[in-house]
Design goal:
Shape: globular
Number of helices: 4
Structural class: mainly alpha
Radius of gyration: 17 Å
Number of domains: 1
Length: about 130
């Protein structure tokens, strides 16, 4: 539920802003955003599955440093998929796609922080209501 809500809300915010900001057709950009959102969810599941196998094998602990490496690894993994797709879809260079990805990254860092904070508050309130019943 978290991943689905995260992606749907991101698309609702991101597609109109990016379409307007980059003067792109909203439906063309929206289709790319939807494809990238699905790729991100699939990549996340694949990457985390592989990461957890390696984590167990080598006995890694989930320290802040390991979380940083995990995050950087995922970004590299996803960019290997997203950059060529974005460049092809929008008929731009891979360098331009990288710059666009940097804009996405800043947006998603801020968005993820805000979304997760609100999501955690909502879950906490729902849990409190269930406890009262």
């Amino acid at each position: 539920m978290h991943a689905l809500l995260f992606e749907i809300c991101a698309l609702i915010i991101l597609v109109p802003l990016m379409s307007y900001g980059f003067n792109m057709d909203m439906f063309h950009f929206g289709a790319l955003a939807l494809i990238l959102a699905l790729c991100a969810m699939a990549s996340n599941m694949i990457y985390n599955h592989g990461y957890e196998i390696i984590e167990r094998r080598y006995g890694w602990r989930r320290t802040v440093g390991m979380r940083i490496w995990h995050t950087l690894g995922f970004e590299a993994f996803f960019m290997a998929i997203a950059l060529p797709l974005t460049a092809w879809w929008l008929d731009i260079s891979v360098l331009e796609a990288l710059l666009l990805d940097l804009v996405f990254s800043v947006f998603f860092m801020l968005y993820a922080f805000c979304f997760n904070w609100v999501y955690d508050l909502a879950r906490q309130r729902m849990a409190q209501r269930q406890c009262r019943r």
